[in-house]
Amino acid sequence: MDILVYLIPAALFLGGLGLLGFLWAMRSGQYDDLDGAATRILFDDDHPNRKNR
To answer: What is the model's pTM?
Structure first.
């Protein structure tokens, strides 16, 4: 039972660290547009770039 003195604070610390990482990812915009890049490749460009001509 003495090991719980170490394990409970360690678990709380790691859980808080994970929560802080998740909140940082939310604020920095990591989850803003999950499908945009995946579907953007499927659409054709109406006006392709003609810089080489």
So the answer is: 0.59
